[in-house]
Amino acid sequence: MGIGNIFKAFQPKDKVFFVLFEKVADNLVKMSQEFHDGMLDFDLNDDSLLKKMSDYEHKLDDLTHEIFVQLGENFITPFDREDINMLASGLDDIADYIYASSKYIFLYKTPDVKEFSEFSLLIHKSCVEIQNAIKHLNGFTNTAEVKESCIKINSFENIADDVLSQGLVRLFETGDAINIIKTKHVLEYLEIVTDKAEDVANTIENIIIKYA
To answer: Which of 27, 50, 23 shows the shortest CA–CA distance to 124?
Structure first.
């Protein structure tokens, strides 16, 4: 191997990892937008939304796997391997829980409740801010923008807590035990999505503290 190739082999693989992370974030935005659109135009007799969520979940699994493959093949990384692992896993968790939420909505044949679309909007907004944070994380050139997105994601999670509380109060007032059990499960899964987004924001903030 020539000296040029040796040098190239040990150059940081920022481009590889950031390209993959940006692809994941782009797909999360698309997935969450489709999910929100589906909650706004809710139809239990049309399971096309569930199929779309399954396709996105598989696509994001493949991207996450590729990040881990690159992690195993590259000696030098743009930031700690542990942080790359945590960020990739956190992003994958968001996709997993969006899909799980849609799955339970259709498996339980859960009736339409207004909190579904309120959650889906908060989820989409969180994914948009994750996309923005990851875009500006590349090269650590605009940490203020990254921090601002993380703050917004944390605020969305706080709002989601209130949506869950209000939704549960309204749900229990119906007195329909079977519907309460089913809908409560879905609402809690939707709230977990915002928790996972907050986890990603916290991971990104920790990366900024270490490297910016």
So the answer is: 27
In angstroms, the CA 203 to CA 149 distance is: 13
Q: What is the pLDDT of residue 212?
A: 66
Range of the domain at 39: 13-211
Whether 169 and 66 have beta carbons less than 8 Å apart is answered as: no
Residue 6 lies in a domain: no
Structural contact between residues 39 and 120, judged by C-beta atoms closer than 8 angstroms: yes
Q: What secondary structure does DSSP assign to 33-79, as a single string?
A: HHHHHHHHT--TT-THHHHHHHHHHHHHHHHHHHHHHHHHH-SS-SS
The answer, yes or no, to whether residue 68 has pLDDT greater than 90, is yes
Cβ–Cβ under 8 Å, residues 27 and 92:
no
Question: Quick check: is 4 in a domain?
Answer: no
Query: Does residue 160 lie within any of the structural domains?
Result: yes
pTM score of the predicted model = 0.91
Instruction: Assess if residue 150 is contained within a domain.
Output: yes
Of 35, 27, 28, 24, the closest CA to residue 121 belongs to: 35
How many domains in the chain? 1
184: CATH: 1.20.58.220
